Amino acid sequence: MVKNDMSDTTKILTIQDISCYGQCSITVALPIVSAFGIETAVLPSAVLSTHTAGFSGYTFRDLTEDLPDIQKHWEKEGIYFDAIYTGYIGSIKQLDYIKDIIDSRLKPDGVVFVDPAMADHGEFYYGFDQEFADKMGELCKLGDYILPNTTEACYLLHRDWKPDFTKDEMLEIANELSRFTKRHVILKGDTHKEDKLGMIVLDKDEPSNIKIVYNDKIDYVSHGTGDVFASAFVGASMNGKEPACSAKIAGEFTKKSIEKTIDDPDHGYGVKFEKVLPELYELLKSI
Ligand code: PXL
User: Edge-to-edge strands of the sheet including 211-216?
Assistant: First the structure.
């Protein structure tokens, strides 16, 4: 059992980019994880003027070479974390630096969450390729929890992607992903039921106890929902919830965020998760 009960001093470090505008990465993780009552430190992998999906001409400041100095300063200050949660990473070299940060700054019983945010809908995000995916696979292997969507899973596994995997195929993919995690797989994007969106939740220590967690499906494609889901999953897990329960809470939170956004045609770049934050405590208690 991964030790992740919350104490008064639970501190998380999240490593992902700051997209200044666009409701993703750190601007999503910081408020959501904090709303779960967790102190959230950030290590920005890059600073962009916007995210890369649907905007053009954005700025991109790569912060790769800042990471070792930040790590050294934290070492000097004796700063440690109960969990490290990684998302969008700016360069291949950063993946090595992040392994060092995990080795050096995670408490001995600390927990690692890896969201291999690099692809969706059958394609890499701009700037990523198979070499990056293979290296991301190495980072995943340090994760107590990995949270890929089906596209990311297929790149990790060198498998062809399609938009509509059957239930058996999803279970097979989740099982194959076992070699890319220390313990838990949360595979998002099971669409085999018409009106439900499923997540496969697998624990390597109990492979026969594989679960599918469903939320109502909303026919709406939006950016940033993976980050909203992962952040809520991390928050729920660090509050002591079991993976299937955390997946259900994160799925509900994401679904409600989409519902708040769907009627606004000018808001395709992200979801209005802020409108659901007041409901988070009830959601955490009810599931
Ligand atoms: O939501 C994933 C994400 C995070 N950060 C940046 C992105 C994307 C997806 O496109 O471009 C900069």
Answer: 60-62, 39-50, 11-21, 81-86, 106-114, 145-146, 184-190, 196-203, 211-216
